[in-house]
Amino acid sequence: MPAIPDNLQLLYSVPSLGIDESKGPPSFVFVTHQLVLDEFPYKFPESAGFFITNCWLGAVGVYEQRIVVRQPDGEPLVDTTSRPFELEDSDIPYTAITFFQGLELPEPGLYRVTIYSQDNPVLRYPIHVLSEKDVLGAEEDS
């Protein structure tokens, strides 16, 4: 596997439930590390889902990014496969917005996101998917 180029940086990776581009560059709406859902399996409506926004900076050139979201059992829920992007100026970041539309989450638990560049993992982080009844039950117990 080729290594991630030394001159490429992932400046940030942000999971959110919305993106607002109405007033210029994208603004994140409902940035979150957890989703509280009312039933499982939970299927987002076809027009809804969640976003992962990655911002890359590096030398001029063509690179690839890939996002894999794994279910609590470790099996892939979604894999974007490698997608090319181009940095046209070493001082201007590239923002890659990926919309996971109509996704089905089979169960509550810890989902893991891995961001890859050139097929090498660059960043891993969790997204906690919780059942609304478990959250409400925990609040009532306190």
Tag the structure with descriptive keywords.
142 residues; mainly beta; Immunoglobulin-like; six-stranded mixed beta sheet; four-stranded antiparallel beta sheet; 12 strands; globular
Offer a concise description of the structure:
With 142 residues, this protein is mainly beta.
Question: What is the secondary structure topology, with strand pairs?
Answer:
Layout: E1 9-20, E2 27-31, E3 34-37, E4 42-43, E5 49-57, E6 61-70, E7 76-79, E8 83-87, E9 94-101, E10 104-105, E11 109-117, E12 120-131, H1 132-141
Describe the structure.
By secondary structure, the protein is mainly β. It has a single domain (9-141), classed as Macroglobulin (MG2) domain (Immunoglobulin-like, Sandwich), CATH 2.60.40. The protein contains one helix and twelve strands; from the N terminus they run E-E-E-E-E-E-E-E-E-E-E-E-H. The chain has one helix at residues 132-141; strands at 9-20, 27-31, 34-37, 42-43, 49-57, 61-70, 76-79, 83-87, 94-101, 104-105, 109-117, 120-131. Strands 3, 6, 7, 8, 11 and 12 form a six-stranded mixed β-sheet that branches. The chain has a four-stranded antiparallel β-sheet with strand order 2-1-5-9, with no helix packed on it. Strand 6 (61-70) and strand 7 (76-79) form a beta hairpin. The protein is globular. The model has no long low-confidence stretch (mean pLDDT 90).
